[in-house]
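Notes taken during the Thursday session

The instructor put the following on the board and asked us to keep it in front of us for the whole hour. The protein is XRE family transcriptional regulator. We were told not to look anything up and to reason only from what is written here. First, the residues (131 in total):
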Amino acid sequence: MRTAKTTLREYTAGELRARLARERISVTALARRLGWSQSYLARRVDGRVAFDLDDLEKVADELGIHVADLLPTPSTANTLPNPVSAKKARSAATSPKRSTRATHRPPSRPGGTTPRADTRRPAMISRPLPA
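Then, after some discussion, the predicted structure tokens were revealed:
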């Protein structure tokens, strides 16, 4: 029984890896039987990419099992994280930190408009020095 929280994708991939090991079937052999590339299936079996439900059904049919055999049961479902809290945790971990420094903003006028270039004060004009 798993005690660490895993995602549904990881759980399904782990169940499939265990099933393949018990039946002594390699990922390459299963991919060949399904007509898929080895890399396509390997990414899913490794848990890097989630299985599409149709693909999971094809894999289960090829192995002679039911799709539900690869999914968690109610007793193991409590090891899966809550999808909402997992999403918040991922976004908090990957969101960039905002700088606390103030950024330069052009001066604004009432109504939120910025002054046009021709109404700004001209820059210092350089004149030739008297001789």
